[in-house]
Design the sequence.
């Protein structure tokens, strides 16, 4: 059986006044049923745009310009608005970064949940309300009846994110795209929500794309990791392999810049240089101005090639050897 | 909520009281009050009688007290021109102005909000640009000039609609109204459009700006990600948020609509309060001027109070924080 989600050579560009911003360029990704994929990258690397492209929610001046998004065999790029609307919220759900902004401030929680149920199912309002109630209980919200009649501002950030997760779970989707859903929350809540989402997905066999710029957060959660840089996937593979033996110099740099427990106080290596502007990308390998291993060969852009004998892909001409990381 | 209402009510009373002081000082205390309040053609004996009746020989604060007491009894003097209590004269004209203002308000909201939302959703479309261009005209052309242009085109050149007056009126809730007769309605169209144009432009611009802001909010994207129809996204999620500032403006503007109906009423010979005010100023009918000022303040303050209450019903955040406060 084919994978749940298979993205091939997807490019989404923003046609701005200053030029074309290639927010994502030839991105290929796949997620299997029940799998958790961590999508990692710096700010502006194109993680959110990837998520929005899957849902067909890229706002003008942005547009998916080429590529294919096969979801359960259907091409979402060619699918059209009607297909997308039937999938959104029902088979593919999304959780956003900032829980303070995700819920409509002037609508009660029950309104916002019930409409999600009714968008996809012909059930009575009371049935929809009951479903919403159950979803709130499932994400650990106590006194759900009272909560349903509240407005978002009566909730803390963590509670709001729980509500957003409950909404995402209403239709037991096949795939949830979680776009840095814990970044805005404090650390304890972050850990709670992380493990809850993991459990909920495991229980319902839901696949998860967990978007983050924090490698440490996602490495304990994801089955596989994909690292993005300047709108491209530069390395992809099973989490353990990627963390223990990164092959792309950028991935290696990222891992070295994550503080580890025992090295407390030790100097962290930072990746030198700055993320390039999408409007003025370097020629050849996009990482080459910052790359310690760059040489003349890096003036041609490498492809995301499979690494023979492994389940990994890397986009580099001089990758670190797998063993010698 | 009760506390909030009581407090808002108190503020309204304060505003009316402040205006009473101003009107009193302006009309009673400055200049010779005898000249101001008594028909210049009155005989010496009449002047003496009135001076005593009004207590003009008493100290200022006592006079003010009398003014206030009389005002509470609805007694703001007798019109020189009509020989009747000034308040009665004004109240006779009130329905005409209120009717005109209400119809103009309905026009400006009923047309302004949909056009503004449309232009906000598609700011770069031809329709969107045309709406904005039109609103600039409505905004910048002087009101009286727009009115004369309307008369020129629709009354003089095309001959479709009458150029002035109120037409046939009929009894409605004890008031004479035009909008229930065909002839009255035809008389009303042009002045109502004239009075509405400026507000409509204001509402279009405000709605458009708000719509553009709201569509970018995460909660709109999240609503779309839930798979609800775009119709519902606009009609519920977007509209409910933009109605809050729009309601505020409508409230403020309804008050000023009553006040500034003066220009329209003069251009279209509409026998409302505004036209009465201009006539009274020309004829130095001061009691009517005083009555007009006090009544207009009362109307504006009442409308603002009403809008505040409406606002708190629409925006749960205001309601709750004010409830706590
Ligand atoms: N509306 C837009 N107009 C123009 N460019 C845009 C727009 N939205 C996104 N982009 C471009 O796409 C790039 C990728 O944005 P994206 O939001 O996917 O980054 P991200 O990886 O999610 O970053 P972050 O961690 O900050 O959320 C941005 O650098 C930006 O240049
Ligand atoms: S291709 Fe060259 S420049 Fe790019 S990451 Fe690999 S070594 Fe560095
Ligand atoms: Mg993002």
Sequence:
């Amino acid at each position: 059986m084919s994978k749940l989600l298979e993205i091939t050579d997807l490019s989404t560009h923003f046609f701005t006044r200053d030029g074309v911003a290639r927010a994502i360029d030839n991105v290929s990704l796949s997620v299997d049923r029940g799998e958790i994929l961590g999508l990692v990258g710096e700010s502006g690397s194109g993680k959110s745009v990837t998520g929005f492209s899957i849902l067909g929610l890229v706002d003008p001046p942005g547009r998916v310009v080429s590529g294919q998004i096969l979801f359960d065999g259907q091409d979402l790029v060619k699918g059209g608005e009607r297909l997308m609307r039937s999938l959104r919220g029902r088979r593919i759900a999304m959780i956003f970064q900032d829980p303070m902004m995700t819920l409509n401030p002037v609508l009660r929680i029950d309104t916002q949940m019930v409409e999600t149920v009714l968008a996809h199912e012909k059930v009575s309002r009371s049935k929809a309300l009951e479903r919403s109630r159950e979803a709130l209980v499932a994400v650990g919200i106590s006194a759900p009846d009272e909560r349903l009649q509240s407005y978002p501002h009566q909730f803390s950030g963590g509670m709001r994110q729980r509500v957003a997760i409950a909404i995402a779970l209403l239709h037991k989707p096949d795939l949830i795209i979680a776009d840095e859903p814990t970044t805005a929350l404090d650390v304890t809540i972050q850990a709670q929500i992380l493990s809850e989402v993991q459990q909920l997905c495991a229980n319902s066999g839901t696949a998860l794309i967990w978007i983050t710029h924090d490698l440490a957060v996602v490495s304990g959660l994801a089955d596989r990791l994909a690292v993005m840089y300047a709108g491209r996937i530069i390395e992809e593979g099973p989490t353990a392999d990627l963390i223990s033996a990164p092959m792309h110099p950028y991935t290696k740099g990222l891992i070295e810049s994550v503080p580890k427990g025992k090295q407390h106080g030790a100097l962290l290596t930072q990746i030198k240089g700055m993320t390039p502007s999408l409007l003025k990308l370097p020629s050849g390998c996009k990482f080459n101005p910052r790359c310690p291993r760059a040489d003349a060969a890096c003036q041609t852009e490498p492809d995301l090639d499979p690494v023979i004998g492994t389940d990994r892909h890397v986009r580099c001409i001089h990758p670190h050897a797998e063993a010698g990381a | 909520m009760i506390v909030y209402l009581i407090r808002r009510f108190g503020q309204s009373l304060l505003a009316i009281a402040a205006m009473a002081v101003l009107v009193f000082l302006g009309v009673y205390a400055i200049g010779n009050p005898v000249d101001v309040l008594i028909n210049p053609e009155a005989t010496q004996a009449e002047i003496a009688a009135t001076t005593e009746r009004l207590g003009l020989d008493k100290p200022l604060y006592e006079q003010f007290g009398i003014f206030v007491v009389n005002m509470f009894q609805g007694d703001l003097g007798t019109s020189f021109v009509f020989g009747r209590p000034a308040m009665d004269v004004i109240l006779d004209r009130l329905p005409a102005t209120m009717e005109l203002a209400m119809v103009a308000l309905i026009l400006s909201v009923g047309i302004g909000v949909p056009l503004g939302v449309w232009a906000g959703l598609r700011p770069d479309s031809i329709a969107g640009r045309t709406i904005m261009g039109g609103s600039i005209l409505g905004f910048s052309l002087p009101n009286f000039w727009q009115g004369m242009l309307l008369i020129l085109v629709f009354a003089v050149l095309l001959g479709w609609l009458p150029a002035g007056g109120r037409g046939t009126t009929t009894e409605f809730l004890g008031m004479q109204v035009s909008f229930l007769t065909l002839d009255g309605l035809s008389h009303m169209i042009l002045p109502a459009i004239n009075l509405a144009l400026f507000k409509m432009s204001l509402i279009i611009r405000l709605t458009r700006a708000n719509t553009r802001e709201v569509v970018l909010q995460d909660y709109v994207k999240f609503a779309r990600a839930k798979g609800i129809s775009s119709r519902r996204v606009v009609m519920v999620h977007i509209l409910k948020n933009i109605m809050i500032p729009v309601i505020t403006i409508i409230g403020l503007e309804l008050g000023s609509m009553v006040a500034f109906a003066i220009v329209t009423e003069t251009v279209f010979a509409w026998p409302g309060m505004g036209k009465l005010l201009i006539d009274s100023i020309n004829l130095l009918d001061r009691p009517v001027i005083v009555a007009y000022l006090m009544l207009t303040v009362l109307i504006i303050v009442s409308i603002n109070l009403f809008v505040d209450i409406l606002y708190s019903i629409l925006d749960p955040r205001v309601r709750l924080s004010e409830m706590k406060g």
Q: What stands out?
A: The first strand of chain B starts at residue 170 and ends at 172. The two ends of chain B are 10 Å apart (CA to CA). The mean pLDDT of chain B is 81. Residues A 248-249, 285, 287-288, 291, 293-294, 298, 302, 316-318 surround iron/sulfur cluster (ligand 2) (CB under 6 Å).
